[in-house]
Design a protein that fits this description.
The protein is built from 10 helices and 13 strands. It is an alpha/beta fold. The two termini are 13 Å apart.
Length: 314
């Protein structure tokens, strides 16, 4: 991010009504326009956090983020350039019933518009381009998704300076900060499971997320570096990934740098995805980084839909 540009996050909120996809639009009071829910990133916030928060503030709807849909950019009246990052966001019936929206000074109304009509309804061509990205997913039948969030543990005490067993190496002060800063952003995808290596540095990395959102981590040697170095992790790793794909619920998988390429390879194999450079790049994570691998909830064998990689926000 630069100091001169403005960054924002938003979402294409969607649901199916009477078999027809509908998109949520907002009628803004000040601008008298029709657009997609979005808003500027607050200080210390990440783009996924901003997208989820702005949807809630503008529409009263709590959504989990799905597939990234692209970025629009344009120049605002002040002359500054604005970049808006969008994600898909499926709206459940429970979320609709729990909505807290009331007309206000910013948003006069919200409206569900059929996909076939929404392009002509929106005020801006740039919003239509984002709708086109979502519609392409709809055409392929992969709008309902879940994610496997492949997380490399945060910064740990170096091997050279550690006298005990490698699996007992703790996080450094920086590592603790990285782990804490990742939790709010990872929560934007609402993981239902956390699976972690048994190593202390991995367990400590997912601890803030577990504590904040009440998801108890499952510890397994199948994701450990010790098992990988001993050559005993292959079948166990395949079992872990296979189960996560079968269950079709968003999950965090916390492991080690050397193990990540095998994790990504197993995700590709389990979903019928052709291996490519983008798979290898998604595994080349620095400490504390993670790749969000989006898969179809209705047909996981259709392959990886998208991958996005994020770093700790410090």
């Amino acid at each position: 991010m630069t100091e001169t540009a403005i960054y924002a996050g938003g979402a294409v909120c969607w649901r199916v009504l009477d078999g027809i996809p509908h998109i949520l639009v907002v009628h803004r009071t000040k601008y008298a326009d029709v657009t997609l829910p979005k808003g500027k990133v607050d200080p210390g916030e990440t783009l996924p956090q901003a997208a989820q928060r702005e949807v809630l503030e503008e529409t009263g709807l709590k959504v989990a983020l799905g597939v990234p849909l692209g970025v629009t950019n344009y120049v605002i009246s002040s002359g500054r350039e604005k970049f808006v990052h969008y994600w898909s966001g499926e709206v459940t019936e429970d979320a609709v019933h729990a909505s807290t929206f009331v007309p206000n000074d910013e948003i006069a109304a919200i409206e569900w518009v059929p996909l076939k009509r929404v392009r002509k309804y929106l005020s801006y061509k740039r919003d239509v381009e984002i709708i086109d990205q979502w519609a392409a997913l709809a055409d392929e039948g992969v709008t309902q998704t879940f994610a496997l969030i492949v997380l490399r543990h945060a910064k740990a005490t170096s091997r050279a300076s550690w006298k005990g067993k490698d699996a007992l190496r703790p996080l450094t002060r920086l590592g603790v900060q990285q782990a804490a800063s990742n939790a709010p952003t990872i929560a934007a995808w609402r993981p239902k499971r956390i699976v972690t290596s048994t190593a202390v540095r991995c367990v400590a990395t997912v601890a803030p997320l577990s504590a904040a959102y009440g998801v108890k981590p499952k510890r397994t040697e199948n994701l450990s570096q010790d098992a990988w170095e001993a050559g005993t992790s292959a079948l166990g790793l395949r079992e872990v990934i296979g189960k996560r794909v079968r269950v079709r619920k968003t999950a965090v998988l916390c492991s080690h740098g050397p193990v990540l390429p095998d994790i990504m390879r197993e995700i590709a194999l389990a979903t019928g995805t052709t291996m490519g450079a983008y798979i290898r790049e998604a595994a080349a994570l620095d400490v504390g980084e993670y790749s969000v691998v989006h898969l179809s909830a209705t047909n996981p064998a259709s392959g990886i839909i998208a991958i996005e990689t994020h770093s700790p926000r410090l």
